Structures are given as structure tokens and as C-alpha cells.
Amino acid sequence: MLKILLVVFLSAFSSWVYQTAVPPPPKKLGSPDGPPITSPRIKLRDGRHISYIESGVPKDVAKSRIIYMHCFGCSKYLNPFASASPAVVEELGVYIVAIDRPGYGESDPDPKRTVKSLALDIEELADQLNLGPKFYVAGFSMGGQVIWSCLKYIPHRLAGAVLISPAVNYWWHNLPSNLTNEAYSRQLIQDQWSMRVAHYLPWLTYWWNTQKWFPSFSVIDGNPSHSPSDIEVKTKLFGSMDPVQVCMISMGGKKQFHIPSFMILTIYPFIFSI
214 CB contacts (<8 Å, ≥6 apart)? Predict the structure, then answer.
């Protein structure tokens, strides 16, 4: 009898773990019960859609064409290039296309997403938009993870890359351990635990960031640790943007709290030209 009760308990517990660890299926964009489609999208080879908005000079006369990737928990509308002086943009001949990363805003999620697939999505988007043989890529914070992918998998297509406080993996072996250890130790304790869960137990990431027993990732909790200088810069860059658009995330109108094991390491922005 005891064995039977134990089996029943373990079965019920396993079912509960599965239900809490797996995010709910997203609602289809443009469907009656799903979010509306308000901006242009391209259709990729696998049938998914990538949403984008364009700014700057027309791409056919542009001297530089930039594809911009937004940060965690935001959308294509959080674009620091959009706050640049129109006169400067015109003088430099810059065209910018900002996209919603897969699963954000009005871009379809990618259940089979890999580090390489993100770069290939960018390449296909550039080809469909006729951006030419080479283009620039830029990423802010978690958007920087896509830039790492582009540098590795499509370097032959890049004119240059811009990393703005990019996300990296603290467990990368080719980064100086003294640098990553110091940066990791400066994170909030709750963020350190969130990163450990994402790295060692990625299948529990959704549960960790939605449970109420322990503090989860500070950005999701709405209490990120920003210094006064961080707040000043953020206000200058994004203060004039529509907060609803900036934080618009699809996934059936709910945030998809799944952080890959590419975590935030704040370093000085730099430009890598090829």
C-alpha cells in the first residue's frame, strides 16, 4: 500500500512540475483571440514571421544599413538609434531596421531556436529587404546575444557590429575568468541565482521566473539595479518612447519569462568593424 501511495504521489508531483515548468502556448498573432498585427513583417523559409520597422534615409540611397536587435523584455520600438539627430542621420546616410526578436512583439516564436538560427534569421531578413551583400548589426543588452551569433555564423555578411552593454555567458571558457567572476559577483543575489538556474537547469527557467517563493530575475520583478548614471543615460535614450510599445511582448499578451544562458555582463560599448 505504501508503494502505491508513493507512486501516486510521485506521479502527481511530476505532473505538477511539468505544468509549472512549461510555458503556455502562445496565441497566434492576427487571430481573433490573439494580438493584432500593426507593423510590416517578412515570412521566413520555415513559415515564421519577423516584424520590423524602418527609419533613417531610404535604404536604396543609404551609405550604411543597420539591423538593430532590442534588449530583454522589450521590442523593436526600444531603439536608441531612433533618438539620433535626423540631421546627423541624413548627413551620414544611415538606414536602420529594428526587428522584434523571435517570440517578442509581433514576431512569431521559434520553438527550435538555436544560437545559429538567430543569425540565419538575420541573414534571411537582410536578403528579403535587399540590404545588399554586407550590412551592420547592432544589439543592446540581450540583443547583443544575437550579435555574437552573427559574428560567429555570418561574418562574411557583416560590414561591422555594434555591441551596447551586451549579454554574454559568464561560463564562456574563452573569457578571462577574473573578469567574469568579478562581474558576476557584482550582480544582485537574486540575479546570480537566476543565472545559475538558466545555466545549470534551463528547463526550470520558466518556473523560476514565474514562481513567488523566491526572488526571480530583477528585470522581471520590476526592480533592476540601475545606478544614477544608468538611469540618466536610459532616460536620454528612451525617455521619449511610448512605454507600451517599448515593452510590447507577444506570447498571447503575456511575457514569456524564459532567459537563455546568455546573461548580462555590462562592459563598455565598442564597435567591431570588419
Answer: 190, 193, 208
